Amino acid sequence: MSTKKSEFGVFGLGVMGSSISLNIADKGYELSVYNRAEGGEEEVVDRFMSANEHRKNIQGFTDLKRFIASIAKPRKMLIMIKAGPTVDLVLNNLFPLLSKGDIIIDGGNSHYLNTKRRFEQAQSHGIEFIGAGISGGEEGARKGPSIMPGGKKESYDLVAAVLESIAAKDDFGKTCCTYIGPEGSGHFIKMVHNGIEYVEMQLLTELYALMSNKMSNEEIAEVFESWNEGALSSYLLEITVQILKKKEGDKYLLDLILDKAGNKGTGSWSSKAAFDLGIPNTMMSSAVFARYISSFKDVRIKMSGLIDSRQSIDGDQNLVSLKKAYECARLINHQQGFKLMQFASDTYKWGLNFSDIARIWSNGCIIKSHLMNELHKEFQCSADLFDMDLVTDQLINGESDLRETLILGLRQRVSTHCFSSSYHYWVDMTTKSLPANLIQAQRDFFGAHTYQRVDSPESEFYHTQW
Ligand code: 6PG
């Protein structure tokens, strides 16, 4: 075993940890990797090291003290483990073994409030802590993910070279990794990234449901493929084309997959954050609930017996209209997602740079798309998608297409959770007078909660003995 000190360490050789380790090693860094040798993981390090025997810049360890001793000070290490309580267990094992100034980067999908807490806990041990959102799945980790690090800028500067070298490159050759902001901000934006991802996936799912009444998987794939050639192009649209075409024997694999959607929580965290910050984030919660509804398969089977097929009326599919509706719904999804980050940034004083965030999301991550490149440019002049002509022009033009899409769903008895949310949000956000005056009157009636008046300054509150 080499006595040379490593420049970087990776803790955890799961799918993501292994891929990212190889990515780091490819860039020429001296690397130490660690995985526990228990609980069914006895062979993990040995297998990884044998598969990479030819690489002379990797040292493998199953002994934590030796792993830590093998890294040059100040030690820099990335932990790639399942988010949740395991992270705390690992940190509690690491803290006593590390030295002042060492840097731990948590590259999992940790909750941003846990990251804030762990950042403070690490500081009390003299350890620097970075919460880094990493997107791109296994392939991204291996070939170039999008990386969203949050923590102290001085700590980031010490690990920037490694993180920036392994990240994807944008259209201009710049790295898709940039310092995001203090404490939990990196994990917060990764959480919102995933919320946007949930909606993008759900919109494609709703289109698939609307189209499949009259079109085969292959035909839907052809339509999506043509959309992916223009301004709508995105990674999720691209993989959906491949998924629709995939066959197992003479059957489409997609038709064999059980219709119960899973989730690991980041979508619901985004929705909860929006509730806590008091910001409408209707599409993400619709997407999360659509997944939850799908998981109630037994109830659905039972209840479906109550419904007569005549309750579904044939509807005309207009592909041009569906495409425009999809464009609009995606814009609203991104408007809501970036707005959520803007509120968080203002509330927590993070100073997020949205043009930069759109840029590092233009490649490497799951929601990379042509739109993200446009937003990178647009955010240099505007703070909100609703202030961008590019966005509002399309939404004004596409409102009727969104409406037609909802009508098609209603006629076909196909739910359009996210399309509907996007439409209602757009209608409300462009309506001067909403019926919320009645809510205020009701609140005042039963609870003396007071109301403001249209004929008085907003600073004045009234109560009526109804
Ligand atoms: C990514 C993905 C990744 C993961 C999510 C999906 O950016 O690489 O978002 O983080 O696939 O955890 O989570 P669900 O299981 O909740 O869909």
Could you walk me through the main structural features you see in this protein, from its secondary elements to its overall organization?
This protein is 54% helix and 8% strand. The protein is an alpha/beta fold and 466 residues long. The chain folds into three domains: 8-183, NAD(P)-binding Rossmann-like Domain (Rossmann fold, 3-Layer(aba) Sandwich); 190-429, N-(1-d-carboxylethyl)-l-norvaline Dehydrogenase, domain 2 (Orthogonal Bundle), CATH 1.10.1040; 435-466, Up-down Bundle (Single alpha-helices involved in coiled-coils or other helix-helix interfaces), CATH 1.20.5. Helix 12 packs across helix 13 (282-295) and helix 15 (319-348) packs across helix 19. The protein binds 6-phosphogluconic acid (6PG). 6-phosphogluconic acid (6PG) binds at residues 109, 135-137, 194, 197, 262-264, 266-267, 365-366.
